[in-house]
């Protein structure tokens, strides 16, 4: 009986050591998952900051486009006035050519800014998609963490 008891005690001690090792591993995994969750939450904060920055850029670009469009309209009005006046002097024709060039440059700038806004909108949509994916990953990691905690509690 004593030999049987000693063997049983040794088996229980071994089993206890195995359970302690498993518990430590589980705690390490939980700590690592916690760290990953923190990193994900930091990344989502950065994504939110980037979204607001992109929004500000879009607003700034839109206001610049409106200003350039006003300037363009003003130049077109001036060109039309010059045409209406039918001034044939050399100065008016030079000014007309100059205004035409400036008008073309402004049109190109407007086009570039509109392209830039489209790119920013696409980037913003991509960031929103990424943010949603990160939130889903975070929720999945939380479920895994809860499962691991439950397993650890059961093992303990």
UniProtKB/TrEMBL annotation:
Q: Does the keyword Glycoprotein apply?
A: no
Q: What is this protein called?
A: DAPLE protein
Organism per entry: Nyctibius grandis
GO terms (BP aspect):
cytoplasmic microtubule organization; cytoskeleton-dependent intracellular transport
State the gene name recorded for this protein. Ccdc88c
Query: What keywords is this UniProt entry annotated with?
Result: Coiled coil
Q: Name one GO cellular component term.
A: centrosome
Q: Does the keyword Coiled coil apply?
A: yes
Q: Name one GO molecular function term.
A: dynein light intermediate chain binding
Coiled coil residues, start to end:
58-151
